[in-house]
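Changelog-adjacent note: as of this version, every example in the card shows the full chain rather than a window. The one below runs 46 residues end to end.
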Amino acid sequence: MTDEIPFCRPLPPTWWGRIKDLLWEILTSILVLLATAWFAAGKPWF
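Full-length structure tokens:
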């Protein structure tokens, strides 16, 4: 195996950081919305 295979190289740190930050923002916002709706309803959905 050589290091010249394109798909074996990781993404540049800046891109990986942006993607990771974006994913974390989406995940945290969804969790916040779910928690807000959960406590607003005052009871579990199931």
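Structural remarks: The radius of gyration is 19 Å.
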